[in-house]
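Priority: low. Protein: Starch-binding associating with outer membrane. Input follows.
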Amino acid sequence: MKSKLKIWISSALFATSLLGCHESFLEEKVYDALTPQNFYQTEADMQAGVIAVYNAMHAFDCWGRQVWLAAEYPGESSWPNNSGEAWRTELDQYTWTPSSTGFKQMWSGLYKMVNRANTVLQYADQVTYANPANKDQILAETRFLRGLAYLTLVRFFDHVPYVTVENSTDLYPSNENTDEQVWTLIIDDFKFASSVLPATHTGRNIGKATAGAAQTMLTKAYLTRAGKPWNKQEYWALAAAEADKIIKNAAYGYGLHANYNDVFTLANEHGKEYIFSLELESGIGLGKDFPTFTGIRSGNQLRLDGWSSLCAEEKFFNSMDPKDKRRNRTFVISYPDIRGNGTIYEYPKTITLPHFNKLINQDDNKATGTGDYATNLPITRYSDLLLMHSEAENEAKGPSAAAVSGINMVRERAGLAPLVPGSMSKETLRNAIIQERAWELCLEGHAYFDLKRQNAIVSRITNFKPAEKHYAFPVPQDELDVNKNLRQHPAYQ
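Result:
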């Protein structure tokens, strides 16, 4: 059943056009009689503004395509099969440059999300609300989304401009000496959101950010701050403590599905493992092409065919134990011909390359085109949180029962033997967690961040030649050309 959030997002074009007045540093503006200054008159107008921030997530230059690919292709599990834009191969082979196309798109898309959020925050005080709680909810959702956009920016680019309501009119913001301001904003936004948002949503609000989502992203922010390149060691303990509070909070209702396959079905897209996702739906302009991207080209696998544009690395395929219960859901092992002629395709017999199966659902069959599938893209889910807890505990205190608790819950569901902390060092447990995250979370937009945070790109990517500079993305050359206050990342100077 379509949630109200999905319907609202698909209908957000009107508010989006208004918020466009604040969306880009140098874009020429066309003003009509209706502007943000006179649009935000009622509580309903403010709600429309929040939905427009959610809507920004869905764009091609955000999680709708480029953010997802930028987090996946540099990892160990996937490759682009020489398909599409050159940027994909550059990501996969660590040959990108400041002029690579996707960097400009992501930078612009994420700042579009930031600027839409800033616009809502700017006009929030001039509206009368039915009750103060409604205003707080609007502010909390908006700040959660702004924090998410900024966290994604710093995880990719490290040093980024600090743009808030106070300096939103600055056309040429600098990224020099802004790190502490940006990190303070990220952490404060998530803390505020977690203190205001409800533990769960029902009815029309299902799919919106919750307190648990805000706390989980706060945990991820702490984890990022602790790892490379920031190396703020005290944040490991903060991440462990925050994750522990979420795990123990029964009000959130989080847990692992007994069957890994059940995590990704349409019926369970808001189940107990759900924390926060890109909300998708067919037939209302809110579908995406994730199944098409990963589906087999001309393979009679999908009714609308696939592109084989995000394939599994053979080495990664072979790294998963055949007894691992996640294997049949993670990879395409076999499938019947969609035409119903009785033909069964199998890897490696009649399927020539390893493919992912994770985002392909047979009940996701209402798409009107290859970009209209309804399967949500998880941004974070409960197993991610459990593995973050294990990582943070290990880094803060070394191997212990607490450090293996989360990873062993994930491994138990997969049918794998538990890890014994007494037989492990901090380094061996660290490597086990990195590997477990790859098996459990592949295709979900974590790979580059995991390898970067743990300083593992050079050691684990052995089929290409990544260098120290590849632990960050460069500031897009187009941005440097138009904004003389920006400075290129030191690794690319």
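The beta strands are 78-79, 274-278, 311-312, 334-336, 344-346, 377-381. The longest strand covers residues 274-278.
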